[in-house]
Specification:
Elements (H helix, E strand, L loop, with lengths): L11 H4 L30 E4 L2 E4 L1 H9 L21 H20 L3 H18 L2 H17 L2 H21 L3 H25 L3 H5 L4 H13 L7 H17 L10 H19 L2
Antiparallel strand pairs: 1-2
Helix pairs in contact: 3-4, 3-6, 3-7, 4-5, 4-6, 5-6, 6-7, 7-11, 9-10, 10-11
């Protein structure tokens, strides 16, 4: 399955992804003053990453809110990070933690956002990029204290961009990819959780992402075995494989609730495994 190019018009399937934290340097999102009653997937703000078109994180959240008030507070994980010497796992964790940060911002949970800021510092230190993100992490904490949620979102974006760019400059491209995949899994878990609890066909449409998932799988499997060692990464591989058929539309042209629940179960399980729960 080929990747979508910028020159192609953005189909609903290509745009309908929750790849929250894939590396990128896109334009700032623009929100309508009054949200329409329906999500128009072709009008989401996007960014182009290595020839792959993806939605900007805040655009996805704004789209979900158009379906009605979301229970963001119920999605705040509160998971504590347990560091070890496996830098590949640390990279996955970093992506998931920043994804949790976006959720905490949506819930306007000061304590959780500050926790994320502190864990960003710890994780970036374990990855050897702490000096590059120190200022952003401190700004996240300061923004949470001030209740400046727009600034916190901005700094979360800058953290992910800086970490991925710095790791690529250090020739740690595989770990940069794992940061992206960790964020995508964390974001997809949250969307599936919300839709499993309160199924809406339009919201479930955001899980229709076969082209993007195929690209994630390709990048993951191109990494050498040493960059994805052990049973944890076998579980990640298996999860990505199983998600493929679930993220395609059924015979009725919809992502049905049964598929949403299965996506939820898979992404929750792999997230728990990465966190070591």
């Amino acid at each position: 399955m080929r990747r979508l190019r910028k020159s192609e018009y953005l189909s609903a399937g290509a745009c309908a992804s929750l790849l929250l934290l894939l590396s990128g340097y896109g334009a700032a999102p623009v929100f309508a003053e009054k949200a329409p009653q329906k999500i128009n997937l072709n009008q989401l703000q996007v960014e182009l990453i290595q020839d792959v078109v993806i939605p900007i994180p805040q655009e996805i959240f704004a789209s979900l809110d158009k379906l009605g008030q979301q229970s963001w507070r119920s999605q705040v994980s509160g998971k504590k990070v347990k560091l070890d010497t496996n830098r590949a796992r640390t990279a996955l964790l970093f992506g998931m933690v920043v994804a949790d940060g976006f959720i905490a911002v949506q819930a306007e949970d000061r304590d959780e956002v500050k926790r994320v800021g502190r864990e960003v510092l710890d994780l970036s230190g374990a990855l050897g990029v702490k000096s590059a993100v120190n200022e952003h992490a401190l700004s996240i904490i300061e923004g949470a204290n001030a209740g400046d949620w727009a600034e916190v979102k901005h700094e979360l974006d800058r953290v992910r961009e800086t970490v991925i760019r710095t790791m690529e400059e250090m020739r740690d491209r595989d770990f940069a990819t794992l940061v992206s995949i960790g964020g995508w899994l964390g974001g997809t878990r949250t969307l599936a959780n919300l839709m499993a609890a309160d199924y809406k066909e339009e919201g479930a449409e955001l899980l229709h992402q076969p082209d993007l998932l195929a690209d994630i799988v390709r990048r993951y499997r191109e990494m050498p075995e040493k960059s994805r060692p052990g049973a944890l990464f076998q579980k990640v591989d298996s999860t990505l494989e199983k998600l493929g058929p679930l993220m395609k539309k059924g015979g009725d042209g919809k992502i049905n609730k049964e598929s949403v629940v299965k996506i939820q179960q898979l992404t929750v399980a792999v997230t728990e495994a990465v966190y070591g729960k």
